[in-house]
Amino acid sequence: MKSTRIQDKKALDRFISQEPLIETNPSLQGTTNIVIPPDSYFGIGLCNGSGVLTQGMPIDVLSMILTAEQVSPDKTILIADTHASANGFDKKEVDKVAGQSQETIQKTLDNLGFNRWNTICASDIDASSTYLNILNGIEASNEYIQRELADMLWFNQEKDVNLKVGWSLNGSRNSDEKSFDQEFKERFGDELSFVYTVPGKTFDPKKLRSAPYFCDNPESRILISPDENVEEKLALAKEHFGPKSTKPYEKFLNHLTRTFDKTVEKTERGPLQIRLQQVLDRCVR
Hints:
Structural class: alpha/beta
CATH topology: Rossmann fold
Number of strands: 7
Strand order of the largest sheet: 3-2-1-4-5
Distance between the termini: 16 Å
Shape: globular
Largest sheet: 5 strands, parallel
Low-confidence stretches: none
CATH class: Alpha Beta
CATH superfamily: HUPs
Number of helices: 11
Strand content: 5-15%
C-alpha cells in the first residue's frame, strides 16, 4: 500500500492543488489554519435531502476515503442514521440501510488494507451525555442542521479531530456541505479545517452531480457491490442515457482510478471498465 502522509502545510497545499478529486479553492481556503497532521472525519448521509433512502453505496465515496487516507493519520466515518430519522424516515428502514452502509464501508476499508479507521453510526454517540449537552446548546432552524453542527463540535471537542472532509458543488454554499461548515465557522471559529472533494457523478444527464455516498437510482451509478459488473453497467448506461451523457461520469471514474493507483496499488493497463473493475474487485473481495 503506497499511501503517503502529509507532513507539512506546503505538502498539503501541493496535494490539494494537484489532486483532481479535490475542489482546489474551497479546500485551500478551508485549511488556512490547519494543524498538521490532522485527524479527520466525514459523514455519510443516508437520504441527502431526497425522498428516498440510499439505494446502495456508490464507488464515488472512494474520493473521500482516498483523500482522508492521504492527509490524516486517524480517520472516522460517521453514518448519519439519526439524521435520516430526523428527516421522517421509518427507523427500521433507516437501521437496515445504515447497517448495510456501515458493513460495505468497513469491508472496503479492510480490503484496501487501510489502518487507523473507525466507522460508527450517529446513534452510537447521540445518547451520550457529552453529545446531548452539545446538541441541546445549539439553536438551529431544524434538527438536521442542529445535528450537523453538533457532530462537528463533538468530534472536535471529544476526539480532537481538526479536519472535516466534505464535498463541494463547485464552491456552492447552498447545495453541498459548505453551508453547514460556514455556519460552524461563524459560530465556533476556526476549530475545524475543511477539505472538499468534487461531487460524485451519475450517468443520468438530468442529474450529472450527486453526493459521493448517496444513490437514488442504481442504474445511474457504479456501486460497491460484489454483483456489479462495470463493463455491463457502462454499456447499459450508454444505451439508456446515450453515449455522450456518460462522459462526465467516465471522466470522474478515470480520476478515481488514478488516485487509487497512487494510494493503494496500480491497476493493470487497459480501458476504464477493466481498470475500474480491478478497483471494485479489491473493494469487495
